[in-house]
Amino acid sequence: MGTTNSLPLSFEDYNIRQKKFLKELPEKTLVLIPTNPVSYRSNDTTYPYRASSYMLYLCGWDAPEAIFMAYQESGSWVTSIFVRPRDTKAEIWEGRRVGVEGASSQCPIDEAYSLNDMETVITEKINACSNIYSILGLNDSLDNITQNSNVEILDPRLILDDMRVIKSEGEIKLMQNAASIASKAHIEGMRKSFSGIGEWELQSIIESYFTSKKSGPSYGSIVGGGDNATILHYHSNDVQVNDGELVLVDAGCEVSGYASDITRTWPVNGKFTEAQREIYELVLKAEIAGIEACQAGSPWSSMHHATSKILAKGLVDLGILNCSFEEALGENFDGKYRNFFMHGTGHMLGLDVHDVGGGRQGDKGPERILQPGMVLTVEPGLYFGSWRTDITIPERYSGIGIRIEDDVLITADGPVVLTSSCPKEISEIESLIGKGLSETNA
Ligand SMILES: [Mn+2]
To answer: How far apart are CA 84 and CA 86, in angstroms?
Structure first.
């Protein structure tokens, strides 16, 4: 019927999180966490709906308009959710709803309410509380009620972000699944590449593989041939990739809200040129060192320091930077190598592709120390856009952009690469390109 909302994790998983979160809150707190609003693309037409990651994290509820609520009653916490009630007329257009009754049984909460009763119920709870933890800016009706109440509104995200940084076993399974699907999609892209392929055609090959696995992109796929690979957030994907050019593909998918994020770069004709090979081997060496630096107990910045040292040295050795290694690297990792490697080495990965709780705890907190259960990306790159006017790009490397990105789980026994099934050695890649359709059930 399409009305069952089967959750990706067990009730127990959600209940553990809720308890852990609520334990951090002061007495007489009311928690009100709204989900994402529906966004319009054009008249009457909405973007595909995606619930907020906080809602998915706390109770897995993926339908629009919901509000997660928790309050204290005789010293213990009660968890609830407000959902859209059954409404045949609306359901004819928008799809079936499970309603309040369905939410009571299918959502890991103590009680469910209809959104029609929201104002009455929430006003009553506010009268009995001393502070509110809510996320503002997502639900105007809710914001009106809380902001007119004269009760202090605090942000629950600082607590939730710290929790979301460490993934449970169930979450890691979903993320491994997302990583494996995206790895296979990149292999499909390599197999079907040829000189003259359109960036849009490669995008379609990769995204249709996601769809075939009941998944979809976790962000707008980047498919950049030649110079387009040197635009970090290139999205138009509307140019042909010529013989002799590389294509950079940054594409990941989502499984039950959890993202993967992979980048591979390959020559569409199946053979790296000497110059492409020199840069590729350098980026690969940096990427492997970055992964090796992902050790529990190490500070967040250690992977960036590891990749930066190798890239700076390589740029000097190749004669691209005419200066000492020290000058190339810079005292604070801000030397001349940043002309060609402008972004960070990685980010947290989870329900958000750039997941919460990155390099620091909070906005200004201490640097985060890597711990088992964290999942992050390692993605160094080098970019030599021929269009650059700020620096001189050596002719030999002009138009080359290369990034290699894997998803890495921190464990007590060292880093585990969730995307290890996606090839990145030159010989492996060259042997795949242009080999055509693989067995879809492989
Ligand atoms: Mn990334």
So the answer is: 7
**What pLDDT does 2 receive?**
38
Element (H, E) at 274: helix 274-292
Token pair for residue 222?
Answer: 């980047």
At residue 362, the pLDDT reads 74
Residue 236 CA, chain-centre distance (Å), reads 20
Catalytic residues: 44, 233, 250, 261, 343, 347, 354, 379, 383, 403, 405
* CA 407 to centroid of ligand 1, rounded, Å: 9
Q: What is the predicted pLDDT for the residue at 4?
A: 46
Ranges of the chain whose pLDDT falls below 70: 1-5, 437-442
Q: Where are the alpha helices (DSSP H) in 24-117?
A: 53-59, 88-94, 99-106
Phi, psi of 178 (to 5 degrees): -60, -40
The whole-number pLDDT of residue 435 equals 85
Domains along the chain? 11-164 (3.40.350.10), 169-432 (3.90.230.10)
Q: State the pLDDT at residue 357.
A: 86
CA of 290 to the centre of ligand 1 (A): 14
Cβ(106)–Cβ(116) under 8 Å? no
Other CB atoms within 10 Å distance of the CB of residue 95: 11
Contact 399/196 with Cβ under 8 angstroms?
no
